[in-house]
Design goal:
The protein is 63% helix and 2% strand. It is mostly helical. Strands 1-2 form a two-stranded antiparallel ribbon. It has a two-stranded antiparallel ribbon with strand order 3-4.
């Protein structure tokens, strides 16, 4: 009896398996996108839910949950093409939907990325991976969602949830898309040759600076929360951190847009740098504060992951170790020493220190990329031929200046645009929760609490359950990173 092979499995003979489709690349791109998505939910969602005070666990987790969903819908409705579509301005693409099958099933292409020599001849052709646009849209969408979630870390424990619901689509539209198009989608920084392999600037500098700026406009947590903000579940926090770390394989490994040799190099460098940074941060805590802080180790892991991101597939393993040493020490110094001596940094209540762990670590990584980028690795990924870091001579010294200028643009844009967005939202909805909600937390904001510890779903009642409070004061030595949070 003759059998009919389903159309989806008819290799190179049907519309569902066209000649240009590479199934391995497509599989890796969708897996990478899912790994990045897992970094946000559940990764950062449970990390935030565990690292904050018990009364803010639900609110902190929900801010990430809502942010992820809102970004994905806005992304396919208009923001993807603003980031990776046809050029409207040197730093912005033309808005448009990414919803129709004619667009999503054709071969992926980033239209503004054809790179020309000064005489007008083509230097590097348009980026055209061997899978459909649907895979590219999804991959880039989860990056955008994670950026928003990272930003949220600066305003946990006091931002009005209704203001956050309005803030997310506005920031995605007017801030994130500009950085993405400028550096990745074919904007002026892309063609100038600024290196950002996987989002040191687009994701981390932008979210860190925007988070710090938003924290300024939202205002501080309650006085009691600022004085004492103990994590409610360190083991849960570590589980979220583990998902964040391993999910970074998709974050950096997916950005060559192919399952190739450069992707493997990027994944290995990512883990080398993260491990080195974690160890350096931990030893600095031991040397100066006499105890290895678990939260400090997580901070060191994050700064290592962030620092290597703009360089992941562009540097050699020895450079990844050096970057890990610096990412474990420079942000440690700015958070643990400089922060406590700076009036400005003390004035702004950045709840989880995203300025240090993301903005400073990301900018550091971007500059170090200009130092260590290896020419052969650069040729595998970058559109500008003969790109190299400073240690390899030639044009490498100029590359450092490009990296500094590229980061400065992202910083300036996010300070200005995030401030404008916060001011506009404030005209309609208060940015900060009312004092009664700040006092109670999750139960007042959501009518829900994170833990039912007192029986079958009962809420805590001091008349029945005895005295308990996560504000209880305990005598303990200064532990460094824990108190910085």
């Amino acid at each position: 009896m003759a059998t009919t092979v389903p159309i989806a499995y008819q290799g190179n003979t049907s519309a569902s398996v066209p000649d240009w489709l590479n199934k391995g690349d497509n599989a890796w791109q969708m897996i990478s996108a899912t790994l990045v998505g897992l970094q946000g939910i559940p990764g950062l969602m449970i990390l935030y839910g565990g690292v904050v005070k018990k009364k803010w666990a639900v609110n902190s987790a929900f801010m990430t949950f809502y942010g992820f969903a809102a970004v994905i819908l806005c992304w396919v409705s208009w923001a993807y093409r603003m980031s990776f579509g046809d050029q409207l301005l040197p730093f912005w693409g033309k808005a448009g939907a990414a919803l129709g099958q004619k667009f999503l099933l054709k071969q992926a292409a980033l239209p503004a990325t054809t790179h020309h020599y000064k005489n007008g001849t083509v230097e590097t052709a348009m980026i055209t991976p061997f899978y459909p646009m649907a895979s590219m849209v999804w991959f880039q969408g989860v990056f955008a969602a994670v950026a928003v979630i990272l930003l949220a870390g600066a305003v946990l424990g006091r931002m009005n949830i209704r203001a956050w619901m309005v803030f997310v689509p506005l920031w995605l539209t007017f801030s994130y898309t500009v950085g993405a198009f400028s550096l990745w989608g074919g904007g002026f920084l892309f063609h100038w040759g600024v290196m950002d392999y996987s989002g040191g600037y687009v994701i981390h500098v932008s979210s860190g600076i925007a988070g710090f700026t938003a924290a300024y406009w939202v205002g501080p947590r309650s006085k009691r929360d600022r004085e004492r903000f103990p994590p409610n579940n360190v083991l849960l926090m570590l589980a979220g951190a583990g998902l964040l770390w391993l999910g970074w394989a998709g974050f950096n490994g997916g950005d060559p847009y192919a399952a190739n040799t450069d992707s493997s190099m990027a994944v290995l460098n990512t883990n080398i740098c993260a491990a080195t940074s974690l160890l350096v941060w931990t030893w600095l805590d031991v040397i100066f504060f006499k105890k290895p802080s678990v939260i400090g180790a997580v901070q060191g892991m994050i700064t290592g992951l962030v620092c290597i991101t703009p360089a992941a597939g562009l540097v050699q393993g020895w450079a990844a170790i050096l970057m890990g040493i610096l990412s474990g020490s420079v942000p440690w110094f700015t958070m643990m020493i400089l922060h406590k001596r700076s009036t400005l940094l003390q004035h702004v209540d950045d709840t989880l220190g995203v300025l240090h762990t993301h903005a400073i670590a990301g900018y550091l990584g971007g500059i170090l990329t200009g130092v260590f980028a290896e020419p052969e690795l650069c040729s595998l990924f970058l559109p500008v031929t003969n790109s190299r870091g400073a240690v390899y001579g030639g044009s490498g010294g100029i590359q450092i200046l490009k990296q500094i200028a590229g980061g400065a643009f992202i910083i300036a844009w996010n300070v200005v645009m995030t401030s404008i967005i916060c001011i506009v939202v404030k005209l309609v909805i208060p940015l900060r929760m009312p004092e009664e909600e700040l006092l109670i937390g999750d139960d007042a904001v959501h009518g829900e609490e994170a833990y039912a510890l007192w029986g079958d779903g009962e809420k805590y009642d001091s008349s029945k359950h005895g005295f308990y409070s996560d504000d209880t004061q305990h005598q303990r030595p200064y532990s460094g990173a824990t108190d910085a949070v």
